[in-house]
Amino acid sequence: MSVWLDALAPKRLGKELRRSLAIAVKDVRIYCLKPPVLLFGLVFPFFLFLAFYVGRKGPITEGIPGLVAISLFFASSNIAPAGMPFERMAKTFQRYLTAPVSLTWTLFGKSLAGFAFGVSVSVFPLLVGIIGYGTRISSPGLLVPSLLASGLCFSSLGTLVATMPTEVPGNVMTVLNFVRLPLLFLSGIFVPLAEMPSWARGLAAISPLTYGNDLLRRSLGFEGYHPPWLSFMVLVLFSSVFFSVAAWIFNLSRRRS
Known about the structure:
Blueprint: H1 2-7, H2 10-31, H3 35-53, H4 64-76, H5 79-89, H6 94-98, H7 103-133, H8 140-161, H9 169-185, H10 198-204, H11 208-219, H12 228-256
């Protein structure tokens, strides 16, 4: 609790936020072109979507919300897990420990980098749908907050996985995909929630991607399963839990080191 009170002290809030933004800009500039980020954030979601969606009945435009959701999910959760092992290996992460910014705000900057990268990447499949397949944005007022809330949640998940104490990016990416793939297949992107058995819908409720995909479907003119207010509330709850646990682990590791 004292860590959070110290991080949110009014007299430090402005300075800490500016330093977090500087960390986010630095991470985007350095890590968005790293091979693990490009492979698992851009290429892998695209071919994964094609592998499961080609052959299904129905127009491809019905799959555009799912493609946007997958791209946002993988890209947002990639920056911190790809970057922090490099920084541990190069011994640059230790510089944050002596820098005039708290560890909690350092993590916020890294989550912000994933959030910005993921939301930016998600625009491309959306444009492909609009230009190539006539996808219509039926509710821009719902689409923008859906992308922002989902991107924040997924980047917080990536920050949590990045707490894994290793200097090998491949180790973190393996664990990250071990977490992401079950969440993806349970999310209702490939099998609609309404067509799932009740036990599968129960499992789908624990995937944050379920709610992000549901919001994107509604904003692009398709039917959703959950009320939008519920999806937003769950995404905010997941974001808070993921980031709080990540900050707790990092601060605990710092006190023990």
